[in-house]
Amino acid sequence: MTRATLLENGLVVDGTGDPATEQDVLITGDRIAAVGPGLRHQLPAGLTLADIDVRDCAGLAIAPGFIDVHTHDDAIVLNAPGMFPKLSQGVTTVVTGNCGLSVAPFVVDEPQGALTLLGNSFKYPTIDAYAKALAEAEPAVNVAPLIGHTTLRYACMGDLTRPASPAELEAMCKLLDECMAQGAIGMSSGLFYAEAMPAPADEVTQLARVVARHGGVYATHMRSEMATILEAMHEASDCAFDAGVPLIISHHKCAGPANWGRTAETLPLIEKLAERQAISMDVYPYVAGSTVLREDLVDEIIDVMVSWSAPFPEMTGRMLASIAAEWGVTQKEACIRLKPGGACYFQMHEDDVRRVVSHPFSMIGSDGLPHDRHPHPRLWGAFPRVLARYWREQQLFTMELAVHKMTGLSARNFRLHQRGQIRANWFADVTVFDPLRIRDVATYENPLAQSEGVEMVFVNGVLGIDSGRATRSHAGRLLRRQGARS
Ligand SMILES: [Zn+2]
Known about the structure:
- The chain is about 30% helix and about 20% strand.
- It has helices spanning about 75-80, 85, 125-135, 150-155, 165-180, 200-215, 230-245, 265-275, 320-325, 330-340, 350-355, 380-395, 400-405, 410-415, and strands spanning about 5-10, 20-30, 30-35, 55, 60-65, 65-70, 90-95, 105-110, 120-125, 140-150, 185-190, 215-220, 245-250, 280-285, 290, 305-310, 340-345, 360-365, 430-435, 455-460, 460-465, 470.
- The strands form four sheets. Strands 1, 2, 3, 4, 5, 19, 20, 21 and 22 form a nine-stranded mixed beta sheet that branches. The chain has an eight-stranded parallel beta sheet with strand order 6-7-10-11-12-13-14-18.
- Helix 7 (about 230-245) links the parallel strand 12 and strand 13 (about 245-250).
- Helix 4 packs across helix 5 (about 165-180), helix 5 (about 165-180) packs parallel to helix 6 and helix 6 (about 200-215) packs parallel to helix 7 (about 230-245).
- The longest helix is centred in the middle third of the chain and has 16 residues, at about 165-180.
- It is globular and about 70 Å long.
- The structure holds zinc ion.
- Zinc ion binds near residues 99, 190, 221 and 251.
């Protein structure tokens, strides 16, 4: 007997941005079978009401499952496959491998530098090996993998302080080609990080050409989000344009007090570039960023909160300024002593965040760091926060557009096949939420807190969250690029 669920009387927010309408949604197997009014009176042949799990969704929104387009969940989907921080927000798909950092294709015992963002699990020489591990782990959410440029450098080069030699670049292209053939959805870069900074634009362009041949996408944490951000944007867009790939600018921001307000320059540039190439961006709805501890990001002006520290775990969750005062040193010096570690940097201005979040090209990505002891609250709250703060409270956009930025737009830009919309015959990734109640609860002080108002979440037709609680389902899949062999 086919598994079937009928969601009745809900407000269908279909992911396209079009106005919501009151409809029923019938789910059979892993697909949305029908969308329309009065579906209980027109069931498909062979299906009776007695076979169906009927849910009254009066007062609730029925949306496509949210797509977290910017994650570092590569290892956590294997190690903690319940993925509750994401599933509980209504997220049904995570795009992994962002910022140049992916666990595949790489094998190493003790990862260094920026790779520590991904935890300590690098055991997958190919996407096929990663796919096998995913099939065994049975994660609760879908996984769409990008291949990291930094990871390719680690895999093919010894010394990362210089550009790749022609032979090394050839090896990187070959490895990337293999990963794309096995279904990776594209490549990411993190030119901001030390291991990738020495790579010239041409190295990235050559790799992006491989991605283009397979119909993938290119996402980049650009070389700069500070003083030289416009140069970095030109570099990224030229690489993508020359290679012929769609460009996604990762977690777009203007960081540092000296650059506050400059989204008034960057967004018009993105619009201008869009006249010649496919370009979009992701954004998280907070004024603090988060990454590894780096003294060059400590300016003694902005607030910095320690999210983990290997030598001083007891400093987790504390402000760097207070640690520095206690130690009688500068914040930079305190940062150096606390390394290796991570931090939240309060480096953005709210006006810039609002401008980027409300821009028609922006999608929502959490950029959550699942391995941090005291993580940035975006890990548990990014998606409900966009609805609660920027739609309901501030009315920066309609609910339909907020959902579009988390679903339809994201699936289109990342080329995820038949996902991101409530549409007959498409995959049944569905999130049912209470539009009046949905809100993030996680804060900087208390980051491990479940959001409210997410009632039901279906992943490939299987109920993963019911009345806000995990069902312990494990219906996620590896989403290979459409057309790749599987
Ligand atoms: Zn990044």
